[in-house]
Write a structure and sequence with these properties.
Length: 356
């Protein structure tokens, strides 16, 4: 039995702050365990990805306590701002960094630390082909050390949908980079059409931004048509999907977008921006068509036009729903993700020193 230590952010099980990255970490840990690995999880306490010196010192002690030759997977939020800590252990441990989203995309000042951290790793695992290309282009990493294990999707019942397609859903933390302001502006241009939109996701990460959003909703006269539902998980989140006609993701940046495949697993079409890994997650139906609509990022007018098209064209909605149902059948599960991840870990040779 092979053993792996997984270092995750300390908030991984905080239901008030659900994230795709935390969910992925949890599913990888359970999937590797189910595949026969001995999995040891370690919470890294700190304000990641902006840790204090004390946070890095705790991480250093955590890694120093692992036995020689141990396989250690470190979440990128923890690893990327801690290159010096990883460098100290790179010759002794088999370090693998799991990159959900390149930290340097959100925090340009962390690009050089992230490069050094990834160069210190024996392997890097990303959650999308887009992320892999991004890291190879930006940091000139050895291609054979950068792997992809795309997120899985759980089987789910088909959402019934409504005749008018008026029930819109956005599942994302309410933050600037998720583009809720763009969506509000787009919806304001559709005040003449019937629709209701639910924002599912934490509202405490950027409270000033959320307050501005609420003010804009009021100014546009659509406050009573947008529900800031807060974070939802488990059956509650399932109910939100079950009541939706269209998932709308207006992100400015996105490495993959697990909510896209969560919606497709229920046969729900998706309107997404053409940024990062979102088009990859959306994919194609067997007939070659998209199971949804794709618009340029940072373009509320294009977003509004796509929403108007969705609401005004019942035949088009039927086509997109059919494609979403068919795309649903092509999705892979989390067992496949765990297999890809295990293959990446197995490619790390324990007796080869890391070249930096």
């Amino acid at each position: 039995m092979r053993t792996v230590h997984i270092v995750v952010p300390n908030d991984i099980d905080d239901l008030r702050r659900p994230s795709g990255g935390n969910h992925y970490d949890r599913r990888i840990a359970s999937g590797l365990g189910a595949a026969g690995w001995s999995v040891h999880e370690h919470a890294a306490w700190g304000a990641w990805p902006r840790p204090s010196a004390a946070d890095r010192a705790r991480l250093a002690r955590l890694l120093a306590a692992r036995p020689d030759g141990a396989m250690v997977v470190i979440d990128g939020l923890v690893a990327s701002p801690s290159p010096d800590v990883l460098a100290l252990e790179a010759e002794r441990l088999q370090l693998v960094v799991l990159v959900h989203m390149p930290v340097g995309d959100h925090h340009p000042e962390l690009r050089e630390p992230e490069r050094r951290a990834l160069m210190a790793a024996a392997a890097v695992v990303t959650t999308s082909e887009w992320s892999r290309r991004r890291l190879l282009d930006r940091y000139d990493l050895p291609p054979d050390r950068v792997h992809v294990a795309t997120p899985g999707a759980d089987a789910a019942p088909l959402a019934p949908g409504s005749d008018g397609g008026t029930r819109l859903l956005c599942v994302a933390a309410v933050t600037l980079h998720k583009g809720h302001d763009l969506l509000v502006e787009a919806l304001a241009n559709l005040a003449d059409r019937p629709w209701l939109c639910t924002f599912v996701g934490p509202v405490d990460r950027e409270p000033e931004f959320v307050e501005i959003l609420r003010q804009r909703c009021a100014e546009h006269g659509i406050a009573d048509r947008i529900d800031f539902a807060g974070p939802c998980t488990g059956p509650d989140l399932g109910d939100r999907y079950a009541g939706a006609d269209l998932l709308v993701i207006a992100s400015r940046r996105e490495a993959y977008g697990m909510v896209v495949t969560e919606a497709l697993a229920r046969g729900i079409p998706v309107l997404a921006t053409a940024t990062g890994g979102l088009p990859e997650a959306l994919g194609y139906a067997p007939d070659g068509g998209r199971p949804g609509l794709v618009v340029p990022p940072d373009d509320p007018a294009a977003l509004a036009a796509a929403l108007r098209q969705w609401l005004a064209d019942p035949d088009g909605r039927d086509t997109l729903r059919r494609r979403a149902w068919e795309r649903r059948l092509t999705l892979t599960g989390w067992d496949h993700t765990a297999t890809l991840f295990a293959q990446a870990l197995s490619a790390v040779e324990p007796d080869v020193a890391v070249r930096r």
